[in-house]
Amino acid sequence: MSGRIFISYRRQDSAGYAGRLFDRLASRFGQSNIFMDIDAIELGVDFVQRIQEAVGSCDVLLAVIGPSWLTVTNANGNSRLSDPNDFVRVEVLTALQRDIHVIPLLVQGAHMPSEKDLPAELSAFARRNGMGIEHASFDSDVGLLVTKLEKILGETAQSPADDEDWYPDDDYSNQFEQSSPLPQSIQTILPGTWLVDINMPTPFGMIPMQMNVEVRTNGTFQGVAPTLMVQGQWNISPLQQLVLTGQQSNGMQVAPYNVVIQFTQLSSDQLSGFTSGNEVTVWNRIAGNNW
Question: Cα separation of 55 and 100, whole Å?
Fold first, then answer.
C-alpha cells in the first residue's frame, strides 16, 4: 500500500477526535501508513526539519480543526499559528508548499478559517475544501472520509475483519463478552470500581456530573449516574487512549455511546484527563478488581 496519511491536530483542541480518527484510518489503511504525533525526535535533531520530512513523505494531510485551533496562544499570549516553530503551522505549511492534498476536518462545531484570519503564508489553507465530523455521526462521517481518501490514494474499499471490534453496531449482546489485547500497565490499573467526576462544557460554564463506573477485566464496563446508565466495551487505542463503545439509556431512550478519554495523569488510585467532547474527567478508585 503506497498511500500515506498525516493527521495534524492540537492536543488541547481536538486530541479525542484525532485519536478516534487514527484508530479508524489505521484499521482501513494500516497503522504504518498513518502518521501522527512526531514525538520521538532524537536529541540534537532539527525538529522543524523532522516534521517537514514526515509530512513530505505523505500523500494526504488531514488538519483536524476544533473550536480553538485558530485562537490558541503561546505563553506570551501570541497566536501559535504565527509562530514559525509551531508544530501545526509547520505541518500545514509544509503540505501546502509541497502541493500535498490538505483536507480540513471541522470538529465540535468549528468553522473554517478565512484568509484574513490566517497568517499570510497559510492563506491558501482557507481555500482547501473540507468536511465536518461530529460526535453523534462519527462513524458515517469518517466512512465518507475513507471513501474520499480511497479515491485520492487509488485504493479499493475493503472492510477489515477487526473493524467491528472498535465500532460496534446496534447489536451489543455478543460483543460485551469480547476482549482485545491491552497494554499491561493500563490493563492492571483500570479494572475496578471508580467514582468518575465529569465537568461538561456549556455556553454557561462547566456542568458537573458524577458516575459510578465498573471496569471489568473481560473488556466490558458499566456506568451508573442518577439519570443515565451506560454499558459496553472498553479498549486502549494505539495512542494510549481509553475507548468506550456501547449504549446509553436514560430510562426512556437507548442510544449509542462512544467516548474517547485521553488521560494526562495516571496512578493506581486516581486518573485524570479529558474526553473527545472536551469534558474534564477525574476517576477516583472506590474498590479494586472483583471480576
Answer: 9
